[in-house]
Write a structure and sequence with these properties.
566 residues; mainly alpha; 4 strands
């Protein structure tokens, strides 16, 4: 077997093997059951609750959960704006990096509180160490907030009839201290022992092989890289992200970071199965997500390993595959694997430049974000999938002539309206944003000439990718796009804001409404939602609602580019 393919298979198997016990542990944390972490983290949790005056045992309904979520994110947004716009004179800035402009600080603040980590700046030169630490804090908080919202939905699905869905702050704190922090510490230690810096010292000088003196940035990188991967945050400490040799030194660290991208999103599925005592349902959801993931992954690996056909026409042999924009340390297969895992989740970190992917691989990466429910972000990935479950249940019920029910609760008009709005919101903001940007560029290409380094089909793909990444709270980019301008900073910030919180509000509202309804015991006529047949139905709904919505846009970009290379 090809060694590159073998490496990909091993990484995927490690993801699943680790996710199953981790999911059981997460289920215990959300159920407030006893775990090994209690003696260590109970004092820390109690300190947070005592200092803030929060009573973690107080139950919240779904509306109170959402108020808490939105309020705390507003506070973090204001703090971030202050720090980023004043980095120049604040401490922990040994390299003298300047403060951000208002529009860039707006984009960056929304980006990190929304778990997107879209970076319109170069990490090592655009942010001070204090700025990096603040953003790293938000990487914990944003991931924890997504997990807390998901835990509330799990609780609603679990109870037969209730208004109380647990306490948002309790879920948030426990997600950060008992799940994200321990895993991140382990990953950070592994990275440090393999060469990733963890220091507050400024740049250091090295003599290159050709005798030049080179100033190399460093800093507290290992800690940020760990949580950026574990929390599906993305965003690099260095501008080159995980293609940078200090952020991702070797194949082992590449495997560790890649495994971490999908570890928690998969574990959350098994956590649901544990909490609800419905392991069969969890495995069905995992199977559907994995089937979709593999349909994007396998052709991407094939496309990258066979090389670029345009270069092949020149008579150039490509034994390593298409290596433009990739690291020789990792190879084409591992780069394609990372590219699909990072876009099927809301991670967005990169170990190769996505702008250099062959056209179809670039399309599959975009489709992972467009569908946004094959694993997805930590917590919010399941919430996106939950919307498609509701739609699939409703359609299936109508097809067999029965009242649509899910877990003993009737799906009625109110829930369907919310689900339909959330399902259509994603393609709406992506396509509208891309259309507006395309119009501006076509209307005045001289004024907006610095936007695109690659006009034509690929330039269109760069703009489509940027809004897709923003809406999916992903953060990766086709970096031929000149995005640090007011249009992209403000428009992408608005898209990230809408696409982060409305898709959380919708599923939590649906779950809360269903939780208050009378429980209907299962009978011979109840639609089974943990079967392969229903899994196929969900997959069909995802394909029709999500994938086909973007087909016309994709034909103008990567598909046209693909046929143009023939």
């Amino acid at each position: 077997m090809n060694s590159e393919i073998f490496g990909v298979i091993v990484m995927f198997l490690v993801m699943v093997v680790l996710a199953i016990p981790l999911g059981r542990y997460i289920g215990k944390v959300f159920n407030n059951e006893k775990t090994w972490a209690d003696p260590i983290f109970n004092p820390l949790d109690n300190l947070f609750f005592k200092a803030s005056g929060i009573q973690p045992q107080n139950e919240m309904n779904w509306k109170q959960h959402l108020v808490a979520l939105l309020t705390i994110n507003l506070v973090w947004f204001l703090l971030s704006m202050f720090v980023l716009m004043n980095m120049g004179w604040l401490p922990l800035n040994p390299d003298g990096n300047p403060s951000m402009t208002a529009d860039l600080a707006f984009n960056t603040s929304i980006s990190f509180i929304s778990n997107t980590n879209l970076q319109h700046y170069a990490g090592e030169s655009g942010v001070s160490y204090l700025g990096q630490l603040i953003l790293m804090l938000f990487q914990f908080i944003s991931a924890g907030a997504g997990m807390a919202a998901c835990a509330a939905v799990f609780r609603a699905m679990k109870e037969k009839q209730t208004e109380g869905l647990g306490n948002f702050y309790n879920y948030l704190v426990r997600s950060c201290t008992r799940i994200l922090l321990p895993v991140s510490i382990v990953v950070a230690v592994l990275l440090m022992f393999n060469g990733t810096p963890m220091t507050f010292k400024g740049k250091d000088q090295f003599i290159s092989l050709q005798g030049d003196t080179v100033n190399v940035s460093r800093g507290p990188a290992a800690a940020m890289v760990a949580i950026k991967q574990v929390g599906t945050n993305g965003g690099g400490f260095f501008g080159a992200n995980s293609a940078h040799p200090l952020e991702n030194p070797n194949y082992f660290t590449n495997a560790v970071e890649n495994v971490c991208i999908v570890l928690l999103p998969i574990a959350m599925i098994f956590a649901m199965g544990y909490m609800l005592k419905r392991k069969k349902l969890a495995w069905m959801i995992f199977a559907v997500m994995t089937a979709g993931f593999l349909l994007l992954l396998l052709p991407s690996i094939y496309e990258e390993m066979k090389g670029n056909p345009a270069i092949g026409k020149l008579g150039v042999v490509q034994p390593l595959g298409s290596m433009e924009g990739k690291e020789v340390r990792f190879g084409s297969a591992a780069s394609a694997f990372w590219g699909i895992t990072t876009t099927c989740t809301s991670n967005g970190s990169v170990n190769a430049m996505h702008d250099s992917f062959t056209p179809l691989t670039g399309m599959f990466a975009m489709m992972g974000m467009m569908i946004n429910s094959f694993y997805g972000g930590v917590g919010v990935g399941f919430l996106n999938f939950y919307i498609f479950i509701i739609i699939a249940v409703f359609i299936s019920g109508l097809m067999v002539g029965r009242t649509p029910e899910f877990l003993g609760k009737k799906i009625e008009a109110k829930e369907m309206k919310i689900a339909a709005i959330i399902a259509l919101l994603h393609p709406f903001v992506i396509l509208v944003g891309t259309a507006l940007a395309s119009y501006l560029y076509a209307h005045n290409p001289v004024l907006y000439a610095n936007w695109l380094n690659n006009p034509g089909n690929h330039g269109y793909s760069e703009m489509l990718y940027e809004y897709t990444s923003s809406s999916a709270n992903n953060g990766s980019g086709f970096e031929g796009l000149g995005d640090n301008v007011r249009w992209w900073n403000i428009s992408c910030g608005i898209v990230m804001l809408i696409s982060r919180f409305l898709p959380i509000i919708g599923p939590v509202a649906i779950a809360g409404i269903l939780a208050k309804k009378k429980y209907i015991p299962e009978s011979a006529g109840t639609l089974k939602t943990d079967t392969g047949t229903f899994g196929i139905m969900i997959f069909a709904v995802i394909f029709i609602v999500a994938a086909l919505s973007f087909f016309p846009a994709l034909t103008l970009g990567p598909i046209a580019e693909f046929f143009g290379m023939k």
